[in-house]
Design a protein that fits this description.
Length: about 260
């Protein structure tokens, strides 16, 4: 329980536009380690809408880097970059910013191509709010900052499940209420949480306002677009466990290209 202004409430509070939203504490969750339960929702051979990469310029910029993380959160820093423009079929362009620690433009281009192709595997709706990909070295967590996905190429777990982690971060920039895309309405999402009375993962349960949407979208894609890639038991667990969130996401009628979804 959390005590706030003399009133004991269950859940997490967030104030926006003059009203208070309560993210409820549910009794349970479905997966202890959500992203790493299945690392084949998307795989390298899946189609990508990525078309080509164009070099833009070399420039020193101020941007996010998890290696500069402080106790209060991520810090921005100035660093030299190679900047590319990635073009996609049936979707807008994005900038891919590569830290100059990769030494040469050709080595930076290799990184931009690798992650540009993965971004192209995302359904179009997960690029709604995405404008920038920033790529660093280092074994640090990936993250999202409004319209920017920040990648650290040395992150061990993220290398193994890079496509799933990209889905998660795409959820942050395109679905979260405070993201550039903001496709999900928080009051409707909270209503679905209350009806389900479960979270998809322990991480979502621990940080519902911040992580529940991004944690859930991997499994919506799994059951609606790639059900042959997950076990029957996990399929049944998801459909039975969070039906109201699945229904809400269904009703948003997402543009899922290049994925074919039911």
């Amino acid at each position: 329980m959390k005590k706030l202004l003399g009133t004991v409430v269950l859940g997490f509070l967030w104030c926006s536009a003059g009203f208070t939203e309560i993210y409820p504490k549910a009794a349970s969750y479905l997966f202890k380690k959500n992203l790493y339960t299945d690392c084949d929702i998307l795989i390298k051979k899946d189609p990508t809408s990525f078309q080509r990469l164009l070099f833009v310029e070399e420039k020193k910029i101020l941007s996010w880097d998890a290696r500069e993380q402080k106790s209060s959160g991520w810090y921005q820093s100035f660093f030299k970059t190679f900047i590319f423009k990635a073009e996609f079929k049936k979707s807008k362009d994005i900038l891919i910013i590569v830290n100059s620690e990769f030494k040469t433009k050709e080595k930076a281009k290799k990184q931009a191509l690798k992650y540009g192709k993965i971004v192209g595997q995302l359904p179009n709706f997960l690029r709604t709010g995405l404008k920038i990909i920033t790529i660093h070295k280092g074994n640090r967590t990936w993250g999202a900052a409004y319209d920017n996905i920040i990648i650290h190429t040395g992150s061990r777990g993220k290398r193994k499940c890079a496509e799933e982690v990209m889905i998660h971060e795409g959820g942050h920039v395109s679905l979260d209420t405070d993201s550039a895309g903001a496709l999900v309405k928080s009051y409707l999402w909270i209503k679905a949480i209350k009806a389900d009375h479960k979270y998809i993962s322990k991480y979502a349960k621990d940080f519902p306002k911040r992580e529940d949407v991004a944690e859930t979208i991997n499994w919506w894609i799994a059951v609606r677009c790639k059900s042959d890639r997950i076990s029957k038991s996990n399929y049944k667990k998801i459909v039975k466990g969070i039906p109201n969130r699945l229904k809400y996401l269904d009703e948003l009628n997402f543009d899922t290209y290049p994925l074919v979804c039911n």
